[in-house]
Design goal:
Elements: E1 2-8, E2 12-19, E3 29-31, E4 36-49, E5 52-57, E6 61-64, E7 69-73, E8 80-87, H1 89-95, E9 105-107, H2 111-124, H3 132-148, H4 159-174, H5 182-189, H6 193-204, H7 208-226, H8 231-238, H9 243-254, H10 258-265, H11 269-277
Antiparallel strand pairs: 1-2, 2-8, 3-7, 4-5, 4-6, 4-7, 4-8, 6-9
Helix pairs in contact: 2-3, 4-5, 4-6, 5-6, 7-8, 7-10
């Protein structure tokens, strides 16, 4: 079993599991260390809780309550991958729902959860500007709505809420080069990460992490256009901790690599003509 911790914050931990066990593997009892939900990304396996067994396939959700034991079986195929979200008691309370909602069990594929799960997968692999912690909370909130059938009331935003969101955006602007997670900016607003994520998104139309990436990319574009600093230095200066993540994010936003953007900003006519031909410049 390959285990990779992608993120660990005060509210949520995200862990990727890759299992290569097959029909010849002997099942054994395991224990949930924390209450969690896991999105089955690929493969299949049996999830046995007591005498109940649910066959999990891609798109299914594994629910585990802290302290409960379970057994995974691999009778039909070899290998599976899961993205696990471990939730703190504070986040569970904020999410709400009945007391038995987080009982250990397997949940079959549900279309709403599949969409939220793929968003979380994209966040975990850097293919979206949504933060991994944000995507995890969205997945958990979607699970609550999908299983309970409660759609929830629309968020009512008053003047004080709008002020909070705007002040948070200004704080992000002033601190965009720092290592910031959802809990940090939510703390500045005096709200839990779950409620702050809902509020910020409702007021500004983007998640806090999407806005943070926007700020960093805007500054990176300015530095690339005006200076001669190495691209890797620009990436780290504006707050990206990983060069490949910066390159993917910048290309997704600008349609060209950071290096090509620098050449375009300095009057490289060939790049300009290529972009014009592709319909990227109007």
């Amino acid at each position: 079993m390959a285990v990779q911790t992608i993120l660990k914050t005060g509210q949520i931990s995200v862990v990727a599991y890759k299992c290569e066990a097959g029909p010849s593997a002997k099942p054994f009892t395991e224990l949930h260390e924390a209450t969690s939900i896991s999105y089955v990304r690929t493969g299949s396996f049996g999830y046995r809780v007591g005498r109940r067994v649910r066959e999990m396939v891609a798109g299914s959700t594994v629910v585990g309550r802290s302290g409960d034991d379970y057994v995974c079986t691999h009778d039909h195929t070899c290998g599976d991958e899961c993205l696990c979200f471990r939730l703190t008691p504070e986040l569970l309370e904020a999410l709400g729902g009945p007391s038995d909602l987080w009982s250990t069990r397997g949940v079959p594929p549900i279309r709403e959860l599949a969409v939220a799960g793929e968003l979380a997968q994209a966040a975990a692999t850097g293919r979206t500007d949504v933060g991994v912690d944000e995507a995890g909370i969205i997945y958990a909130a979607t699970f609550v709505r999908a299983v309970t059938g409660e759609r929830g009331r629309a968020l009512e935003v008053d003047t004080r809420d709008r002020r909070r969101a705007v002040h948070a955006a200004l704080w992000l602007d002033a601190n965009s080069r720092e290592d910031i997670d959802l809990g940090a900016v939510a703390g500045q607003a005096g709200l839990s990460p779950f409620h702050f994520l809902r509020l910020f998104s409702a007021v500004l139309g983007v998640t806090p992490h999407q806005y943070l990436v926007h700020l960093r990319l805007r500054e990176a574009a300015r530095l690339l256009a005006q200076g001669d600093e190495a691209i890797s230095a620009v990436a780290y200066d504006v707050g990206f901790g990983d060069l490949s993540n910066f390159t993917r994010s910048f290309h997704r936003a600008a349609g060209v690599s950071p290096r090509s953007f620098r050449r375009l900003a300095r009057g490289d006519r060939k790049i300009f003509q290529d972009r014009l031909a592709a319909g990227l410049v109007r």
